């Protein structure tokens, strides 16, 4: 077991919270700008179903880029790895998450990986279904299975707020459409993508998803295999190589676990065979990752030797 109790975890939260003053809440999606910079909460979910937590864990946050891991798992199940990786690559970029730079300089305009926005848009494009409603419904059902919570839904306000301001993602989508990587209506794709990013849940649900990935795609509580082991392995590998964007190398050295962040301040961690982690801390660093969330993971990793290598 990690911390012996939620009290022990609370002490680490208090320590990590000190650095929220150096962070900034994301406001390029206006609805996210309402978050409280000083919030920090964490839940850790163990395979035996027990959970420890600290902070205001009832607060719901939108998944934002954390959803990219889940949509990737779904399309890998929909199409298989060969089809998916013909359309999106496997390499880290070292660039910011919304950068267009590499698309222009690569011989083929295929996005380098599914965790940057360009790659995630290609992944969302691959979600099977005859309409946006059906495709989003399939994704949401999968999230509800992962959390074992049929009430998980999305925040309409956050989705609309992003849709209205997503011109950079529009530009990325038009670019990859022009190069034949996607072939659907860009506005429809953005509607689906912004709803995906606006799926919301609390830290407990996030930690529950983490433990499913940690246990190779099997929900250890219900015993259901929610995705093939190979799909969970691919997703965890992307979390290690690209999960924290252009901070993934430093994160791997300092913390060393598969994790995925989002601009709402969420981090989902999956410590293989051990537990899942859900964090919410909306103050972000200059790379778009939760500043106090990373500090908290650093403290946990140091204290409890979480690094994989
Ligand atoms: O596409 C966007 O800009 C957001 N919906 C998600 C970006 C994000 O979470 C990047 N994370 N650090």
From TrEMBL:
**Substrates-to-products reaction catalysed:** L-glutamine + H2O = L-glutamate + NH4(+)
Which residues does the annotation say bind substrate?
Answer: 65, 117, 162, 169, 193, 245, 263
SUPFAM superfamilies assigned to the protein according to its UniProt record, in alphabetical order: beta-lactamase/transpeptidase-like
Any one Gene Ontology molecular-function term assigned to this protein's record: glutaminase activity
Task: Please tell me which top-level EC class this enzyme sits in.
Answer: hydrolase
Q: Does the keyword ATP-binding apply?
A: no
Q: One Pfam family from the UniProt entry?
A: Glutaminase
Q: Which InterPro entries match?
A: Beta-lactam/transpept-like, Glutaminase
Question: Could you tell me the EC number(s) of this protein?
Answer: 3.5.1.2
Entry keywords, A to Z = Acetylation, Hydrolase
Q: Which NCBIfam families does the record associate with it?
A: Gln_ase (TIGR03814)
Tell me the subunit arrangement: Homotetramer.
**Which family is this protein grouped under?**
Belongs to the glutaminase family.
What HAMAP family does the database record attribute to this sequence?
Glutaminase
Q: What is this protein called?
A: Glutaminase
Question: Which organism was this protein described from?
Answer: Robertmurraya beringensis
């Amino acid at each position: 077991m990690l911390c012996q109790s939620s009290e022990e975890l609370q002490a680490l939260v208090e320590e990590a919270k000190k650095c929220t003053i150096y962070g900034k809440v994301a406001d390029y999606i206006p609805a996210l700008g309402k978050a409280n910079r000083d919030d920090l909460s964490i839940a850790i979910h163990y395979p035996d179903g027990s959970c420890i937590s600290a902070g205001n864990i009832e607060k719901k946050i939108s998944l934002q880029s954390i959803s990219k891991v889940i949509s990737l798992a779904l399309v890998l199940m929909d199409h298989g790895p060969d089809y998916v990786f013909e359309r999106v690559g496997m390499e880290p970029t070292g660039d910011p998450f919304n950068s267009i730079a590499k698309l222009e300089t690569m011989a083929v305009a295929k996005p380098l990986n599914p965790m940057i926005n360009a790659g995630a848009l290609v992944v969302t494009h691959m979600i099977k279904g005859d309409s946006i409603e059906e495709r989003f419904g399939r994704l949401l059902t999968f999230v509800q299975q992962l959390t074992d919570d049929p009430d998980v839904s999305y925040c309409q306000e956050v989705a609309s707020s992003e849709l209205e301001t997503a011109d950079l993602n529009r530009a990325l989508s038009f670019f990859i459409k022009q190069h034949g990587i996607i072939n659907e209506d860009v506005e429809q794709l953005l509607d689906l993508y912004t709803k995906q990013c606006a799926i919301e849940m609390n830290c407990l649900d996030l930690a529950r998803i983490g433990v499913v990935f940690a246990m190779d795609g099997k929900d250890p509580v219900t015993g259901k295999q929610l995705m093939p082991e190979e799909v969970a392995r691919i997703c965890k590998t992307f979390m290690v190589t690209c999960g924290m964007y252009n901070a993934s190398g430093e994160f791997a050295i300092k913390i060393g676990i598969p994790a995925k962040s989002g601009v709402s301040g969420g981090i989902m961690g999956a410590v293989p065979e051990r537990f899942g982690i859900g964090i919410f801390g909306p103050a972000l660093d200059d790379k778009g990752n939760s500043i106090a969330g990373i500090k908290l993971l650093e403290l946990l990793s140091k204290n409890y030797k979480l690094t994989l290598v």
